[in-house]
User: What shape does this take?
Amino acid sequence: MTADTVFTGLRFVFDCSALLLWGSAIYLRVLVEPALSERIWRQMRPLRIAASWLICAATIAALPVRTAMLGNGWPDAADGAMMLDVLFHTGVGTAWIWQALGALALASSSAFSDPRNRMMVTALAAGFLLTGLATIGHAAMHAGIFGFVHKASDVLHLLSVGSWVGALIPVFLILRPACAGIFAAECRIALIRFSTAGHVAVAVALLTGVINTLMIVGGPPTDWSTPYQMLLSLKIAAVCMMLALALANRYLIVPRLSRRPEAMAWLRAGTLAEVAIALAVVGLVAIFGMLEPFP
Amino acid sequence: MSRFLRAFPVAGLIMLAAAGQAFAHAHLKASTPADKASAAAPAEINLGFTEALDLKFSGIAVVGADKTDVALGDAVLKDDGKTLAAPVSARLAPGAYTVNWHVLSVDGHKTNGSFTFTVTP
Assistant: This one.
C-alpha cells in the first residue's frame, strides 16, 4: 500500500472525527438547554472518546506517512532527519504542527469536569482542527487576495458542514421517545433551533462549496475524464441527496410528528441516512482532495 | 432565505469571472534554458513554476548525453518562492542535456518533469 493511500485513510478518519466533535459539541453547548445537553453529551461518551482517540492517532501517524510521501516512499517514513525537514521546512510540516496543537487541546478537554465547559473546549479545539485543514492543500493554492478569499471560504465550508452533519448525531439521540418523554419541552426547543440554525448552516455550506469549486476548477466540474472532477461531481450528487433528505425530514415528516406515531421513526431513519451519505461525502473528499484538478 | 438563494447565481458568476482557471499543483511555466533550446553554455538553470515551492523537497538534476550528472551548486528560491534556480558549477561542453526536476509546492503537492536543451559549440 502506498503512503498516499494510507494518508487518504488518515484524512477520512480525521475529518469525520473533527466534523462530528465540532458539530455535536457546538450544537449541544449553544442551542440545547443545559439539562438535556448534558444527558445527550453523556450518551455520546463512547463516540466522543473514540473520535478524540482517532484524531490523536491519525495526527501522530500523519507525520511519518507525510514524510514517506514527500520523500521517496516507505523507507523514508522512519528517517528522522527527513521528518525534521518536513516538520520545519515545508508547508505540510507547519500545518502538522498546528494540527498537533489542536489535538493536544482536544485531549486536554477531559481535564474539565463540568460537562458544559467540556463541550465548549471540545467545540473550540475541533473547530480549530477544521480551520487548520484549509492551510494546506487546494485551499492554499492561491496567494494574495484570492488566497484569503479561498481559505476563508474553505474554513466557513468546513465549519458550516460540521455544524450541520455533526449535530445530526445529537439530534438523532434527542429524537428517541425515551428522551422526549423526560424532556418534552427541551427536546422541542432543541429541534426547532436545529432546524433554524440548520437552514443557515446548509445555505453557507452550499454557497462556500460553490465558491471553492469555482476557485479550484474555475467552473462546474464537467470534465469527467479527470478523476478529480468526476469525484467532485459524485460529491455534489451525494450532497443533493443529503439536501433532499434534510428538506423531506423538515417539511414532509416534521409537520406529521403530532398526528402520525410512526413519523418519529421516519425522522430518525432519515437523519441516519443523512449521516451515512455524509460519511460517503467525506470519503470522496479524502480521495479527490489529493488529486490534480486538471488533466 | 429566499434572498440568500437568489444571491447564489450572482455570487457564482462574480467568482467565476474573477477566479478564472488556476493550477492546484506546481507546473513548470518557463525555464532558462528553455525546453529544446540551442544556446551557449548556461551559467544557471532557472525554472519558473505556477506556485510557490518548498526548497527542502525540490531539486534539479542535469544529465549529459553520456548519462553523466552535471555538477550544480545549491539550489535557491527566487520570485516569491516560485522560481527554483541552481548555478552550473563548470562550463558545459557542447552537446545535448536533460534537466530533471522535482518540486513540492507549499500547499503540499509533489510534481516532477524533465526537458532537454542543447549547448552549441
Chain A has twelve helices and no strands. Residues 221 and 229 of chain A are 5 Å apart (CA to CA). The first helix of chain A runs from residue 3 to 31. The two ends of chain A are 25 Å apart (CA to CA).
